[in-house]
Amino acid sequence: MKPFIPQLVYFEPEALHYPLGKELKEKFENMNIEIHETTSHNQVRGIPGENEWQKYRNAKSTLVVGVRRTLKFDTSKPSAEYAIPLATGCMGHCHYCYLQTTLGSKPYIRVYVNLDDIFAQAQKYISERAPEITRFEAACTSDIVGIDHLTHSLKKTIEFIGETEYGRLRFVTKYEHVDHLLDAKHNGKTRFRFSVNSRYVIKNFEPGTSSFEARLQAARKVANAGYPLGFIVAPIYMHDGWEEGYFELFQHLAHQLKGIDLSTVTFELIQHRFTKPAKAVIQKRYPKTKLDLDENKRKYKWGRYGIGKYVYPDDDAMRLEITMRHYIAQFFPGAEVQYFT
Predict the structure, then answer these.
(1) Which helix (H) or strand (E) covers residue 196, if one does?
(2) Which CB contacts under 8 angstroms, 24+ apart, belong to 115-119?
(3) Tens of pLDDT, residues 197-222
(4) Which of 52, 88, 120, 281 places its Cα 20 to 30 Å from the Cα of 134?
(5) For the packed helices 212-224 and 242-256, what is the interaxial angle rounded to 10 degrees?
(6) What is the pLDDT of residues 254-308, one digit of tens each?
(7) 251 neighbors 331 (Cβ within 8 angstroms)
(8) DSSP per residue over 218-273, as a string?
(9) Confidence category of residue 309, pLDDT binned at 50, 70, 90
């Protein structure tokens, strides 16, 4: 698929005080993209559309260039100590995505130009924890690879982390646009992960993302460039024929990666889950979705911050985990399964 190009761009005036902000303004002017000004990347108004659905679709193709003022990093997922804030929002239309509710009424894509400030804060966290390793996740609130051909913020971050002694970087993507990252001086300190799934899930629930084959071709490039490689299987979803679908996934993955050093490959396994607010938003934005959001088929699990989620019942979750671990052991015997959740 073609790399993402925004249809509409907003700039915070302060962003133009930074080299990256000036560079992006000139780039988008040369591309004849419509440019507006906004007082804050958190308060963007005037995105076109006759109704909420049209405004949502247009927001997904709108880029906002701003300054990240809150430099306290969020604590991240099971795989990292901190989330490093390079961007927020995604151009993909994955029906199940937790960003549907996390971003709420702000589904537009935001990039932050004060990279030196962000790196200084990251270095502070690294120094505080040294000599322990400090891991940063760059894709908690976006698919950073999908927009980095425009900003190169991720490439700069990879090289920043590559120069640290105790820092590590990781991110996950559904996009194939990795060529500009292949010559980055990563020094083996960035784990490049790809999100993969059964054909059924990709076909029905992941519009606006790269195909499975394109992701695997990108994975080969990344591995050949010396990056540690990983895969996230998420969300693991019990559709009709799911056992066969996921068997085909791992079989095809192993075949396409033949000849690649997979001695350090990692897998992360995440079952499908949803919240009540997410269900309402998903059904509103994707009214024809095939995603099964029947609460009666799920187990209610209390989450952090008092927000509960619907996950598979214990017996189903156990079947999913055992099946995934079995397939990984069969096709990737040396791989590390970091977690199932």
Answers:
(1) strand 190-196
(2) 115/18, 115/20, 115/86, 115/153, 115/156, 115/157, 117/68, 117/71, 118/68, 118/71, 118/84, 118/85, 118/86, 119/157, 119/160
(3) 999 999 999 999 999 999 999 999 99
(4) 88
(5) 40
(6) 999 999 999 999 999 999 999 998 999 999 999 999 999 999 999 999 876 667 8
(7) yes
(8) HHHHHHHTT--EEEEEEEE---TTHHHHHHHHHHHHHHHTTTS--TT-EEEEEE--
(9) very high
Going by C-alpha positions, the residue among 160, 177, 178, 180 that lies closest to residue 169 is 160
pTM: 0.95
Give the span between the Cα atoms of 320 and 70, in whole angstroms: 39
d(CA 215, CA 229): 12
Structure tokens at 334: 């040396």
3-state secondary structure of 88: strand
Q: CA torsion sign, 248 to 254 to 257 to 262?
A: positive
